[in-house]
């Protein structure tokens, strides 16, 4: 596919066994706000984002990624993308139609190569949002989602071929080879990244803060609250963004970040960075060292929802 029809990342939907505990974490601790509720469902918004919600939580017996949602410019692009995917043999969950989720819109869902559910939508109502003020240590928007993949080369190829994602940068290790691919659908360095892992699962979901001060204030607030920190604070080389990684109550990794690089797509050439060099993982040298413990905490549990569409 040569024409990019996806415009941006909308939200990530997670299923969890303890909805009440997860909701309390994301609102009372992480800084999102409850925007809509339904039976066994909560839709959480970021105060600075025009998206109706950036995280959806669903009560379920097991833990899984319900779906990752991306935007398209209009209904015609949604239809075109659905037709192209079907023609290429990609398994659609449903045909394009009116959405029944908050903000409405028009969209469809399909399974990617490893069985994750992906949603593409357009014409969703814009949420009334505001500028985050100086010193406010709450998320502005959902920055990016990173997935673990047992077939990362195949997953990268799927998103490039079918959804016109572009490669921004790659992380490699002298002994292990290429390990992570940063993929974009607009000028942001990455909206999706693919990490080599033992199984398909969520690696982490990242939330953009207003600036460095707000990022550090948020990091400190979570530390004072006793939330387990995995890695950070620091600044990556690929994407040039800051990072502080924490574990949510169900063992998912969530990140505070800021200053993710915006690229000139016409002139950008992808780099291959050797992350065995400390300055690649953390330019500042302030984070705890990237090691097997840090990596293993982001492997997460195997996703229980592969090739099983969420009920909602």
Largest sheet: 9 strands, mixed
* H and E order: EHEEEEHEEEEHEEEEHEEEEHH
What is the CA–CA distance across the termini?
29 Å
**Poorly predicted ranges:** none
The CATH architecture assignment of the largest domain turns out to be Roll
Spatial ordering of strands, largest sheet: 14-15-16-13-9-12-11-10-17
Shape: globular
SS content category: alpha/beta
> What is the CATH C-level name of the largest domain?
Alpha Beta
Please provide the count of β strands.
Answer: 17
| Percentage of residues in strands | 35-45%
Q: How many distinct helices?
A: 6
Description:
By secondary structure, the chain is of the alpha/beta class. The chain has 2 domains: 6-122, 2,3-Dihydroxybiphenyl 1,2-Dioxygenase, domain 1, CATH 3.10.180.10; 141-297, 2,3-Dihydroxybiphenyl 1,2-Dioxygenase, domain 1 (Roll). 19% of the residues lie in helices and 37% in strands. A 9-stranded mixed β-sheet has the order 14-15-16-13-9-12-11-10-17. A hairpin with a 7-residue loop joins β6 (92-98) and β7. The protein is globular. The chain starts with 5 loop residues before the first strand and ends in a 15-residue tail after the last helix. The mean pLDDT is 97.
């Amino acid at each position: 596919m040569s024409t990019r029809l996806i415009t941006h990342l909308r939200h990530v939907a997670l299923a969890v066994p303890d909805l009440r505990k997860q909701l309390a974490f994301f609102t009372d601790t992480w800084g999102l706000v409850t925007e809509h509720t339904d039976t066994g469902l909560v839709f959480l918004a970021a105060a600075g984002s025009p998206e109706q919600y950036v995280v959806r939580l669903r009560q379920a017996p097991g833990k899984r990624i319900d779906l990752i949602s991306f935007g398209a410019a209009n209904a015609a692009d949604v239809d075109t993308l659905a037709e192209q995917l079907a023609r290429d043999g990609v398994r659609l969950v449903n045909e394009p139609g009116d959405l029944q989720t908050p903000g409405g819109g028009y969209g469809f869902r399909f399974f990617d190569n490893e069985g994750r559910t992906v949603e593409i939508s357009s014409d969703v109502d814009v949420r009334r949002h505001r500028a985050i003020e100086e010193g406010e240590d709450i998320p502005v928007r959902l920055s990016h989602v990173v997935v673990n993949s047992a077939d990362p080369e195949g997953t990268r190829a799927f998103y490039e071929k079918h959804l016109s994602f572009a490669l921004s940068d790659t992380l490699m290790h002298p002994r292990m080879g290429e390990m992570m691919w940063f993929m974009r659908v607009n000028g942001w360095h990455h909206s999706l990244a693919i990490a080599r892992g033992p199984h398909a699962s969520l690696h982490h979901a990242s939330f953009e803060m207003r600036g460095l001060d707000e990022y550090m204030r948020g990091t400190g607030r979570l530390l004072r609250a006793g939330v387990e920190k995995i890695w950070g604070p620091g600044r990556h080389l690929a994407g040039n963004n800051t990072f502080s990684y924490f574990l949510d109550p169900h063992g998912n990794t969530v990140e505070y970040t800021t200053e993710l690089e915006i690229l000139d797509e016409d002139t950008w050439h992808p780099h291959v960075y050797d992350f065995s060099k400390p300055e690649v993982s953390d330019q500042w040298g302030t984070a705890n060292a990237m090691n097997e413990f840090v990596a293993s905490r982001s492997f997460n549990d195997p996703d229980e929802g592969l090739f099983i569409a969420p009920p909602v």
